[in-house]
Amino acid sequence: MNWSTKKWNWLVFFAVAALCVPAGCKAHADAAKPEAAATPPFMSMATQNPPQADAQAPPPEKTGGFDGSLAYDYVAKQVSFGPRPAGSPALAKTRDYIMSQLKSFGCTVDTDSFSADTPIGRLQMTNLVVKIPGERPGIILLGTHYDTLRMDNFVGADDAGSSTGLMMEMARLLCGKRGRYAVWIAFFDGEEAQKQWSDLDSLYGSRDMAARMALNGDLKNIRAMLLADIIGGKQLRIMRDTTSTPWLTKLVWSTADKLGYSSEFLDQDTSVEDDHDSFLKRGVPAVDVITDFPNMGYWHTPQDTMDKISAKSLAIVGHVFVETLKELQEK
């Protein structure tokens, strides 16, 4: 995603921009339990933070059934595959893992593969889409990306292992249930720039899915899109994205406030380019739930490792998604 915060001065802006080279800024149950994540050869044991050593997540009965510890485990397994840029063997292994978990939850999963022309050549990419039917026409779309930045030793625990773990746990919770409207959960490939963030070198998976849905007529059935990205950090500071649809942003923030999470969902604005833009540009109401990532210190660096994220943070954001989804189902 690509970022700008309107309250910042230009000096800070250019300091952040310097961090974006070379790939470009992101424009601002037992069956469910994954296998234990192995320690990658490029990571020391000091960077590992086992779930039991992490800040305790609230129990699922206090977070609408969302299990933050399970979501944390899903992130750890992704990180065990190492760097996962689009088109890499590690991302293929990650995709197979996500698919196997989703199927163990009883989910129906579509795979949408496509070839993308990128600055480093043509790459094969694949979106995964969980489709949970509803009782009447209409789709509520949840989304994340599951690729990582193309950078040596970048394992992306927070970006975007955390949001992918969150959406896997949402799938475990929702698959097999039936609401008023269908719920689709999209795992986008190719969100990250392959060289330098631009309109053409970014958001490959979400752009492809939005275009496909426009062609087959499904796009007009989307009632709302909720995107998550970089939401697992121990210091959880989620700011309102001003490019997102105002009524939907208000719904998410009012839900967070009612749940007691106003110190995590801040009354501050930012502006971010992310996968929600592919749908906003086609008239779909969409909101990006994303932390204040330029201030985290480890964003788009090899230090984005498991010790930076928290099962508690995953549980908080998951709880907000669960309750916001309930509100949308009742509208």
Mind explaining what this structure looks like?
This protein is an alpha/beta fold. The protein has one domain (63-330): Aminopeptidase (3-Layer(aba) Sandwich). It is built from eight helices and nine strands. The chain has helices at residues 10-18, 68-80, 89-104, 157-174, 204-216, 246-258, 277-280, 311-330; strands spanning 3-4, 109-118, 121-132, 139-145, 182-188, 222-229, 238-241, 265-272, 286-290. The strands form two sheets. The chain has a six-stranded mixed sheet with strand order 2-3-5-4-6-9, with helices on both faces. A three-stranded mixed sheet has the order 1-8-7. α4 (157-174) crosses α8 (311-330). The longest helix is centred in the last third of the chain and has 20 residues, at 311-330. It starts with a strand and ends with a helix.
